[in-house]
Amino acid sequence: MDTWTSWLALVLVLAASVVLVRAVVEVRRLRADVAALEEHAGEVAGELGALPPELSRTFGTGARHLISVEILNLFELAHRESALTRPLTALTPRLLRDVVHRRIIGRVRQNLNEQGVRADVRLHRAR
């Protein structure tokens, strides 16, 4: 390769590096913007008494009211049920989570039924 070709290759590599760095910076800025907009949308939904954006896509914004329950101590509940669940937590956390959710949904249905409440109890996965 002659000197001119080497310089041209070096300039092209440097230009590509600059473009790549700018693209990475722009992607990070866009992700930060999206996170800020999601947070703001959640705040606005709270002020309006509307469903959060992640739920309104699924349930709409109609007159139907929903009660949402997030189980915060899922694995603790599983460990209380059986000593065998502790090793399963490390091996198959998703399967264990699904089993616990099904049991809890069954209990909620049974308790509501005993109270004479007609309800459609379902499990919805958030992102």
Outline the fold blueprint:
Layout: H1 3-48, H2 53-59, H3 74-81, H4 85-91, H5 93-114
List keywords for this structure.
127 residues; mainly alpha; 71% helix; elongated
Describe the overall structure.
The protein is an all-alpha fold. Helix content is about 70%, strand content about 0%. It contains 5 helices and no strands. Helix 3 crosses helix 5. The mean pLDDT is about 80.
The fraction of residues in strands falls at under 5%
Q: What class would the helix/strand composition place it in?
A: mainly alpha
Give the ordered list of helices and strands: HHHHH
Poorly predicted sequence stretches spanning 5 or more consecutive residues:
none
Question: Main beta sheet, described?
Answer: none
Q: Overall mean pLDDT score? A: 80
Distinct helical segment count:
5
Radius of gyration: 26 Å
Number of strands: 0
Shape assignment = elongated
Q: What proportion of the residues is helical, as a percent range? A: over 70%
Query: What is the distance, rounded to the nearest whole angstrom, between the alpha carbons of the first and last residues?
Result: 53 Å
